[in-house]
Amino acid sequence: MRELENAVERAVVLSKSRTLTLKDFDFLKPGPGLLPSPCETLSLQEMEKRHMEAVLRDNDWNISRSADILGVSRATLHRMIHRHGAKKP
Fold first, then answer.
1. All structural domains of the chain
2. Are the CB atoms for 36 and 42 separated by under 8 Å?
3. pTM for this one?
4. What does residue 50 show for φ and ψ, rounded to 5 degrees?
5. Does residue 77 contact residue 86 with C-beta atoms inside 8 Å?
6. HSE of 8 in the Cβ direction (CA atoms, 13 Å)?
7. Are the C-beta atoms of residues 2 and 58 closer than 8 Å to each other?
8. Which residues contact 3 (CB under 8 A, 6 or more apart)?
9. Is residue 86's pLDDT more than 90?
10. Residue 54, class by beta-carbon neighbours within 10 Å (0-12 exposed, 13-18 middle, 19+ buried)?
11. What is the pLDDT of residues 12-30, one digit of tens each?
12. pLDDT at residue number 62
């Protein structure tokens, strides 16, 4: 439910009109590099890293919000960031 609320809030903020359309939710579509191409096989660890980085990026590296979305504790997310060597841009 929280993800839906965040998506609607973001769409409202980014929308250029008074009415939301599907185009206002384009940011929800996975970007290049998040999902493997049909010929690319990724390890579970690489998929976890990509997903974690996408969630962090989409939430401006807000650890609490990202941990909630990922369904892990803040401490676990910090360990994941360290394990994958992710860096805040």
1. 42-89 (1.10.10)
2. yes
3. 0.58
4. -65, -45
5. no
6. 6
7. no
8. 69
9. yes
10. middle
11. 887 888 888 888 877 776 6
12. 94
CB 66 within 8 A of CB 55: yes
End-to-end Cα separation, the chain, in angstroms: 28
**Which phi and psi (to 5°) does residue 77 adopt?**
-65, -40
Give the model confidence (pLDDT) of 34-59 as tens digits.
555 656 677 889 889 988 999 999 99
Two tokens, residue 76: 């676990």
Name residue 8's amino acid.
V
What does the pLDDT look like over 53-83, one tens digit per residue?
Answer: 999 999 999 999 999 988 999 999 999 999 9
Tokens of residue 13, six digits: 């903020």
Residues in the chain, total: 89
Structure tokens, 85: 């060597």
